[in-house]
């Protein structure tokens, strides 16, 4: 039996205002019911006006997926009652969506996988119910926030593939600058459809609604596959049904069965004319497309000599990729910059860069010039990352500049030999490890600042003269 999965993904577009009114769209930290107006509250007589930016962002996604944009798409009403939907209908695009077709290629264990896109459309979000011990409260701030819905063909073959596909999609959305696509904040959510196929025939599917974590997507689908395999192996039929997902319990929650399927009574939205996109507007959006992550990955490999794997890690977050490029430009060596960013910077990243790119580049340059030891550089970086003082300030104040001056090292080496005649004699008698002891003495005296390589060369010279 083969697992067959198709996803319907909702992406919240990061426009400043809502889809059909001028209310602010960044509801996440706002007081409930403060970002509303007659339009998004569905007051009688209020009329929607489409947000150009939302259309532009949705088009960027369509272009990136290679979808075919329909020059004339249409808005439809999807009618249903729910307390978080004051209008009693959602404006979406069903009969003629914004774009059809396309695909997303993503990497699974380093191998390319392809998922076809069925269609992509613009729609508005509903509000939110907040459940409290005293009853449910409703927050209308999210009403009318712009979404793009991406519907895939059933091309995914395992729960893990669904997760990795979504990760790749998130990376793409962030590179396009159209959404923050944070699943925890509900900016990226998905309904997952799954069936088990026997003898190549598509089976009856179940749908799991509103998954909002990568882990949840994988676990819920695994659970659904398991739940289908059992009846099928007994020769029984699968019931078409819609489920919710309880992340804490790790359980599917039955919401409705096929018999209770909704009839949304779709019809063309009478308050909006069809969405006609002029060739000029489309060209302008195309013109403004940022570099796509896969093109950027190839460039990181060819321009900076990075491995595909390292490039992939840097590109997972466009801000990290940007930071890396700034450091690389400052250092003049992409691989060296990548080494530092991947090994030293990444673990302090959390919300953003721990130190400015220019300062890190300067630090790396000093290490390369032999002016600061690697160990000391890492220590200073760690302190700067932990907060308070800037990297360069710390460098200056510590007098961490590496001692690599030939004369100075020679003087320090002579001092060490004079202070430890026994070690010097041991070395001359053939005990190689005595050299390490002398190097250690100079390191102690300089608090680790001596250029160890040059120093041992000089000591060796002085002791074999
Ligand atoms: P519905 O009409 O129930 O919404 P659609 O045909 O519109 O179903 O498909 C919705 C989503 O379900 C799409 O992402 C599609 O790829 C996926 N899908 C459709 N049929 C199956 C199936 N048999 N198994 C798994 N996924 C499927
Ligand atoms: Mg559907
Ligand atoms: Zn409004």
Supply the key terms.
10-stranded mixed beta sheet, about 20% strand, alpha+beta, Arc Repressor Mutant, subunit A, 17 strands, binds zinc ion, about 475 residues, binds magnesium ion, elongated
Question: Could you characterize the architecture of this molecule?
Answer:
This protein is an alpha+beta fold and 465 residues long. It folds into three domains: 2-281, no CATH class; 293-397, no CATH class; 406-463, Arc Repressor Mutant, subunit A, CATH 1.10.10.410. Helix content is 40%, strand content 20%. It has 15 helices and 17 strands. It has helices spanning 52-64, 159-176, 214-233, 279-287, 293-304, 308-315, 318-331, 334-345, 357-368, 374-385, 391-398, 406-419, 421-428, 433-445, 452-464; strands at residues 2-12, 68-69, 72-73, 76-79, 89-92, 99-100, 103-108, 111-124, 128-132, 135-139, 146-152, 188-197, 206-211, 241-246, 251-257, 267-268, 275-276. The strands form four sheets. Strands 1, 2, 6, 7, 8, 11, 12, 13, 14 and 15 form a ten-stranded mixed beta sheet that branches. It has a three-stranded antiparallel beta sheet with strand order 5-4-16, with no helix packed on it. The protein has a two-stranded antiparallel sheet with strand order 3-17. Strand 7 (103-108) and strand 8 form a beta hairpin. Helix 7 crosses helix 9 and helix 12 packs across helix 14. The longest helix has 20 residues, at 214-233. It is elongated and about 95 Å long. Residues 18, 21, 23, 36-37, 39-40, 144 line the site of zinc ion. Zinc ion (ZN) binds at residues 18, 21, 23, 36-37, 39-40, 144.
């Amino acid at each position: 039996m083969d697992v067959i999965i198709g996803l319907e993904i909702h992406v919240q577009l990061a426009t400043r205002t809502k889809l059909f009114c001028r209310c602010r769209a960044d509801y996440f930290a706002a007081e409930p019911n403060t970002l509303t107006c007659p339009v998004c509250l569905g007051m009688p007589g209020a009329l929607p006006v489409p947000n150009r930016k939302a259309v532009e962002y949705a088009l960027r996604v369509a272009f990136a997926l290679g979808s075919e944009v329909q020059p004339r798409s249409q808005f439809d009403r999807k009618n249903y009652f729910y307390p978080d939907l004051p209008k009693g209908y959602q404006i979406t695009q069903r009969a003629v969506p914004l774009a059809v077709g396309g695909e997303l290629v993503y990497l699974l264990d380093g191998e390319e996988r392809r998922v076809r896109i069925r269609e992509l459309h613009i729609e508005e979000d509903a509000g939110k119910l907040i459940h409290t011990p005293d009853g449910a409260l409703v927050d209308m701030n999210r009403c009318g926030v712009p979404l793009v819905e991406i519907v895939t063909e059933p091309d995914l073959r395992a729960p893990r593939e669904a997760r990795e596909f979504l990760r790749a999609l998130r990376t793409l959305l962030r590179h396009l600058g159209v959404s923050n696509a944070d699943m925890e904040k509900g900016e990226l959510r998905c309904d997952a459809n799954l069936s088990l196929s026997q003898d190549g025939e598509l089976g009856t599917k179940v749908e799991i609604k509103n998954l909002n974590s990568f882990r949840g997507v994988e676990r819920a689908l695994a659970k659904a596959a398991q739940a289908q395999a059992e009846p099928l192996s007994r020769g029984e039929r699968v019931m078409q049904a819609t489920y919710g997902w309880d992340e804490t319990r790790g359980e599917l929650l039955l919401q409705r069965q096929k018999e209770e399927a909704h009839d949304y009574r779709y019809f063309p939205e009478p308050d909006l004319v069809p969405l006609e996109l002029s060739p000029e507007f489309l060209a302008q959006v195309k013109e403004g497309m940022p570099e796509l992550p896969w093109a950027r990955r190839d460039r990181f490999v060819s321009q900076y000599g990075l491995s595909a794997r390292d490039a992939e890690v840097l590109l997972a977050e466009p801000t990290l990729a940007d930071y890396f490029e700034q450091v690389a430009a400052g250092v003049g060596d992409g691989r060296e910059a990548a080494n530092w960013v991947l090994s030293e910077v990444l673990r302090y990243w959390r919300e953003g860069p721990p130190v400015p790119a220019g300062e890190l580049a300067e630090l790396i340059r000093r290490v390369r010039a032999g002016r600061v030891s690697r160990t000391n550089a890492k220590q200073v970086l760690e302190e700067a990352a932990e907060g308070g003082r800037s990297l360069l300030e710390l460098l200056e104040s510590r007098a961490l500049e590496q001692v690599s001056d030939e004369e100075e090292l020679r003087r320090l080496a002579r001092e060490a030999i004079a202070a430890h005649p026994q070690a010097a004699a041991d070395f001359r008698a053939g005990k190689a490890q005595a050299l390490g002891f002398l190097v250690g003495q100079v390191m102690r005296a300089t608090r680790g600042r001596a250029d160890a390589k040059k120093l041992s060369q000089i000591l060796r010279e002085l002791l074999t003269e």
